[in-house]
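Example S7 (structure tokens).
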């Protein structure tokens, strides 16, 4: 029995669902501080979470209201346990589905992807020059914003997803967890139909290569897809171009036993080609 994956959604609707999750998470990301859903107040040195003050008990210890043992227990229960649970859930999802957070939620990835599309539509290129906005800031704030702004301006102007591929620790740990799982979700390619790719999106090459925001070849083996963000754009364009030629898509998501079978087939092909 086949396991259900996000790839079972109709390819035409796949990107609609992905856009909805990106917009929803971006709105949550922007509104969370204002709504006290997640905010650290620098003035009061107070963390707010889901509208409630989140205390580690350190202030109570300093005022003599609780003992050192109680403070240590609160620190473990309120800081280390939630942190470990969050990391476990995050890496657990990445272990099975890869960099799903990057492709479906990450605000940075969403903004870069939008910028790519706008510039490509406007001028057919993926580069631009940005400027810095002046303001009445303290020297330290100015230095901080200048350094961070310069780095991100250069990244947006020249590298784009280069940061997502090699500089983002969140993405890196997702990729490492995913690569360690042979049953993790992969984009499987019907290699016996590889000849059909020659007529796909000609003369620019295969449509899936051009659609991938990470500049990957989705038909490649898993170890060459380390920075794949599971956005599914390769699946969508593959389905569209193959339908135009009255054929079924050659790419699909596979997870679990099916993904393991795909990994084993890739290894066998590598071994046979090396002999």
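Recovered sequence:
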């Amino acid at each position: 029995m086949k396991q259900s994956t996000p790839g079972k959604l109709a390819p035409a609707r796949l990107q609609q669902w992905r856009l909805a999750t990106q917009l929803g998470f971006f709105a949550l990301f922007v509104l969370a501080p204002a709504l006290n859903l997640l905010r650290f107040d620098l003035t009061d040195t107070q963390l707010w979470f889901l509208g409630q003050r989140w205390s580690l008990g350190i202030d109570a210890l300093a005022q003599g209201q609780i003992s050192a043992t109680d403070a240590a227990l609160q620190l473990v229960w309120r800081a280390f346990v939630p942190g470990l649970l969050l990391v476990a859930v995050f890496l657990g999802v990445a272990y099975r589905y890869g960099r799903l957070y990057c492709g479906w939620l990450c605000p940075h990835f969403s903004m870069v992807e939008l910028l790519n599309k706008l510039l490509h539509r406007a001028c057919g290129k993926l580069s631009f020059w940005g400027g810095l906005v002046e303001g009445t800031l303290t020297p330290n704030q100015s230095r901080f914003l200048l350094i961070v702004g310069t780095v991100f301006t250069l990244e947006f102007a020249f590298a784009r997803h280069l940061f997502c591929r090699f500089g983002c620790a969140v993405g890196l740990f997702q990729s490492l967890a995913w690569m360690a799982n042979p049953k993790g979700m992969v984009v499987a390619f019907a290699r016996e139909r590889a000849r059909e790719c020659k007529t796909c999106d000609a003369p620019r090459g295969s449509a899936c290569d051009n659609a991938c925001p990470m500049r990957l070849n989705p038909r490649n083996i898993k170890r060459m897809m380390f920075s794949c963000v599971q956005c599914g754009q390769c699946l969508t364009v593959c389905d569209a171009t193959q339908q135009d030629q009255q054929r079924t898509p050659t790419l699909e998501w596979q997870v679990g036993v099916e993904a393991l079978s795909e990994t084993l087939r890739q290894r066998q092909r590598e071994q046979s080609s090396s002999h």
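Notes on this example. Residues 103 and 218 are 14 Å apart (CA to CA).
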